[in-house]
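Input record (Table S2, row 214):
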Amino acid sequence: MILIKTTKKIAKFIMMKTIYSGIGEVGKKVYIGRNTEFRNRKNIYLGDRVSIGEYCVLSANKEKQSLKIGSDTAIHAFCMVRAKAGFIHIGNECSLNPYSIIYGGQGGVKIGNYVRIATHTVIVAAQHLFQRLDVPICYQGGESKGIIIEDDVWIGANCTILDGVKIGKGSIIAAGAVVTKDVMPYSIMTGVPAKLIKIRQTDKELSTSIKARQ
Ligand SMILES: CC(C)(COP(=O)(O)OP(=O)(O)OC[C@H]1O[C@@H](n2cnc3c(N)ncnc32)[C@H](O)[C@@H]1OP(=O)(O)O)[C@@H](O)C(=O)NCCC(=O)NCCS
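Output record (coenzyme A complex):
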């Protein structure tokens, strides 16, 4: 019995070592699910206790640490995180839920700590140029300003975050929203294009602001 357990442990250890091999930096107790693919793996950095689900694609580029995932962050199954021409840096204790996509253009994507990104969200830091009518859009090149998502942001299911946007600390992006402009800290945004419906306030702040209005 002990022999079987030990053999299983050794087999798992060897399997994980094979999966990790060549990745730039791998922290302690990292989990990687079946059929997950790493591209330009030497430029990928994974912090401690990072968990990557099944069937994900994580792609860095030729730049060192062009794809960084902080400690205690979970990338769930079927996600795509591709640095493309820029970088993607995700902080600590974040989660990216199934079928979500993050693409970094030259401007990159920077995500802080404690950020929750629900299923089917698309974050793409790039756009096609389309000024000319005589050239197909796909041949006109692109631009990328970059996307910043600060700490403690909650992005609901099915959201789209467009290039050039900064989402302030503590904000909530409601399910289905398309964020086209910067979002102030502690905002609650809904709709297409996303509009401010509320500012998050503590009960104390709320009663102070109600008193001030009376
Ligand atoms: C935004 C959200 C957090 C609710 O916040 P809230 O401050 O409690 O908002 P309320 O429920 O009081 O709704 C305020 C208004 O926004 C509207 N609203 C709420 N969620 C909305 C959404 N996703 N899209 C469009 N409008 C929405 C409400 O209909 C309401 O409109 P009204 O004032 O005209 O009646 C919630 O609706 C939401 O979208 N959560 C995300 C859920 C999700 O994606 N979960 C995935 C797993 S984590």
